[in-house]
Design brief:
The chain is an alpha+beta fold. The protein has 14 helices and five strands.
């Protein structure tokens, strides 16, 4: 076992509870476990089974990454670890600039002032984000979590911590569509996850280390070319897997529902929601996170 450690100072307004709530959606705690002020989460780190532990104290996050290997970690991996942790905690997200610009907004302002340090919780990897988004298309969160558990047990491995590691694309690429369907996925969803996995495993599709205005449209185009992936899935993946905050979640039923409450509107179409969100460019996805959080939903 190799253990990497890193401590990070947190902003005074960091929303620890919101962060932990996102990671404890699964009550069965198969791949994530939340106890008091501590998160444990298992996944693959550079193709190695890993368990991340983050313990929060006043103004600090104390992190350990337990890797199931006796081999020394390459220099690139050691250098990558602190930056990845900052990404995972959402510390690179420009929340202060967003709040400063929009805290006086007549409709959204009161929501922002109640939760000023809210960040978009991140997945362990873009692959986790896109596969989870595909699983969650047009079904309830409870149903999606049930599929997710079975998917992890099919394609992942159990870490010595007892948690199951969320699978990487290399493992999923070896699994047939029929096997993927056995976890509760429709044919279209199973095909989409299989194709994404194969494209990533073969490096036919190469994901950028970071998404920016120069490469986001190419990535969007590449993902939309995969059958079973539409605009909502792409925008959710960009938000959860790359911390790209300008994707519009107008296609999200919960965003529309919570916006209706905020605006005291009887019904809003996806088009109307898209038009309303446009004023918050380049932070439209962060607005969605605030709408979710305002109604006690982590998205």
């Amino acid at each position: 076992m190799t253990v990497l450690t890193h401590n990070i100072a947190l902003p005074a307004d960091y929303q620890v509870t919101a962060f932990l709530n996102f990671h404890q959606r699964d009550s069965q705690q198969l791949a994530e476990r939340v106890k008091a002020d501590t998160l444990e989460k298992s996944f693959f780190w550079n193709n190695l089974p890993a368990c991340l532990t983050i313990h929060f104290t006043a103004g600090q996050a104390h992190a350990q990454l337990h890797l199931e290997t006796s081999q020394p970690i390459a220099t690139d991996g050691l250098n990558e670890w602190p930056a990845w942790l900052e990404y995972f905690l959402g510390l690179q997200q420009p929340t202060a600039a967003f709040i400063q610009q929009h805290q006086q907004h007549p409709e959204l302002g009161p929501v922002l002032r109640q939760q000023p340090g809210l960040r978009v919780a991140q997945t362990s990897s873009p692959f986790e984000a896109v596969s989870w988004a595909i699983m969650g298309q047009q079904i309830s969160v409870a149903a999606a979590l049930n599929v997710r558990r079975r998917f992890i047990q099919l394609a992942g491995v159990q870490h010595s911590s007892g948690l199951w590691c969320y699978p990487n694309p290399h493992r999923v690429a070896q699994i047939s569509i029929e096997e993927l369907r056995s976890v509760g996925l429709s044919f279209n969803k199973a095909r989409a996850i299989a194709q994404v996995s194969q494209l990533l495993s073969s490096q036919t599709l190469k994901l950028p280390a970071q998404v920016n205005s120069d490469n986001v449209e190419q990535l969007r185009e590449d993902l939309l070319a995969i059958p079973g992936i539409g605009p909502w899935t792409v925008n959710y993946t960009l938000m959860r897997g790359f911390a790209w905050l300008d994707g519009s979640l107008h296609g999200d039923a919960a965003v529309r529902r919570y916006l209706q409450v905020l605006l005291n509107a009887e019904q809003l179409t996806a088009k109307q929601t898209e038009q309303w969100l446009q004023q918050f460019t380049p932070w439209k996805a962060l607005v969605a996170a605030h709408l979710w959080q305002s109604q006690g939903f982590s998205g």
